[in-house]
């Protein structure tokens, strides 16, 4: 069995504000340590339950956060930015399952550090289904026939995952109080929970179906201001549909995913003044 792990940072226990997830801030090194610990709990349990190969994709910001020297030695790490498929780089049909660790709720919703890719994106849709990073990444996994069997993060992320993926196992390592505060498990307790939930998810592997994306999906992204929408619409094939919403007709979910990456990146060039 081959397992793919996508590891974000905002959904890790104890990480509650930007000081833990921004490399320029004072708590970032602590955040790296706890993030690496949480991923290791999942890896160790997966190997114990029959996984022969575990690939971890660092999926936060510049995607070089995990401490490879402290990562479980039997895992392999995809690290670094400018990945063609960002948070799901390396995922293909050779994997039996995927687990998302350290995930957060989508933009415009309650949850610790909730957002969707960039802070300019207010809402994203695949056809009529609203998605955040969790949903979009699960659709890419589904394109390859790979189920997302577990999602770890705060309670709001767990609710989002359960509404989207029937039968998914969720590991709630913190309860959101506000966007920058939470009731957190200690790393020791979060480790126990992650090991228990990973074992449960692997035992229930056959009960979770891949989230199959629609064919020829329409991607829509609503941005925070019109300038962001203008920049995003510069991508060939994209157009402002209404207000600050930009539309893109994709051939398949992989093209929609790359279009989302380009559009959200272009939008960051807009300013608020």
From TrEMBL:
<protein>
    <submittedName>
        <fullName>M55 family metallopeptidase</fullName>
    </submittedName>
</protein>
<dbReference type="GO" id="GO:0004177">
    <property type="term" value="F:aminopeptidase activity"/>
</dbReference>
<dbReference type="InterPro" id="IPR007035">
    <property type="entry name" value="Peptidase_M55"/>
</dbReference>
<keyword id="KW-0479">Metal-binding</keyword>
<keyword id="KW-0862">Zinc</keyword>
<feature type="binding site">
    <location>
        <position position="133"/>
    </location>
    <ligand>
        <name>Zn(2+) 2</name>
    </ligand>
</feature>
<dbReference type="InterPro" id="IPR027476">
    <property type="entry name" value="DppA_N"/>
</dbReference>
<dbReference type="InterPro" id="IPR036177">
    <property type="entry name" value="Peptidase_M55_sf"/>
</dbReference>
<keyword id="KW-0378">Hydrolase</keyword>
<feature type="binding site">
    <location>
        <position position="8"/>
    </location>
    <ligand>
        <name>Zn(2+) 2</name>
    </ligand>
</feature>
<feature type="active site" description="Nucleophile">
    <location>
        <position position="115"/>
    </location>
</feature>
<dbReference type="GO" id="GO:0046872">
    <property type="term" value="F:metal ion binding"/>
</dbReference>
<feature type="binding site">
    <location>
        <position position="8"/>
    </location>
    <ligand>
        <name>Zn(2+) 1</name>
    </ligand>
</feature>
<dbReference type="Pfam" id="PF04951">
    <property type="entry name" value="Peptidase_M55"/>
</dbReference>
<keyword id="KW-0031">Aminopeptidase</keyword>
<feature type="binding site">
    <location>
        <position position="60"/>
    </location>
    <ligand>
        <name>Zn(2+) 2</name>
    </ligand>
</feature>
<feature type="binding site">
    <location>
        <position position="10"/>
    </location>
    <ligand>
        <name>Zn(2+) 1</name>
    </ligand>
</feature>
<keyword id="KW-0645">Protease</keyword>
<feature type="binding site">
    <location>
        <position position="104"/>
    </location>
    <ligand>
        <name>Zn(2+) 2</name>
    </ligand>
</feature>
């Amino acid at each position: 069995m081959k397992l793919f792990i996508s590891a974000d940072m905002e959904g890790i226990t104890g990480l509650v504000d930007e000081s833990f997830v921004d490399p320029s801030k004072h708590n970032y090194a602590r955040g790296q340590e706890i993030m690496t610990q949480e991923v290791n709990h999942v890896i160790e349990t997966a190997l114990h339950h029959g996984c022969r190969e575990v690939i971890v994709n660092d999926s936060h910001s510049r995607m070089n956060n995990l401490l490879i020297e402290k990562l479980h030695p039997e895992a392999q790490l995809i690290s670094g930015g400018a990945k063609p498929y960002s948070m799901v780089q390396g995922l293909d049909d050779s994997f039996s399952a995927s687990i998302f660790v350290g995930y957060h709720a989508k933009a415009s919703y309650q949850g610790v550090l909730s957002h969707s890719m960039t802070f300019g994106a207010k809402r994203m849709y695949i056809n009529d289904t609203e998605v955040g990073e969790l949903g979009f990444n699960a659709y890419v996994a589904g394109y390859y026939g790979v189920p997302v069997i577990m999602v770890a993060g705060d309670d709001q992320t767990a609710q989002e995952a359960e509404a989207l993926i029937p039968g998914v196992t969720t590991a709630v390592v913190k309860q959101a109080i506000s966007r920058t505060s939470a009731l957190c498990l200690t790393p020791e307790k979060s480790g126990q929970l992650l090991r228990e939930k990973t074992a449960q998810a692997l035992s229930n592997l056959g009960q979770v179906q891949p989230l199959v994306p629609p064919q020829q999906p329409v991607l829509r992204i609503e941005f925070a201001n019109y300038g962001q929408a203008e920049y995003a619409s510069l991508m060939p094939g994209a157009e402002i549909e209404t207000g600050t919403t930009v539309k893109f007709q994709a051939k398949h979910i992989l093209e929609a995913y790359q279009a989302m990456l380009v559009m959200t990146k272009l939008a960051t060039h807009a300013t608020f003044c």
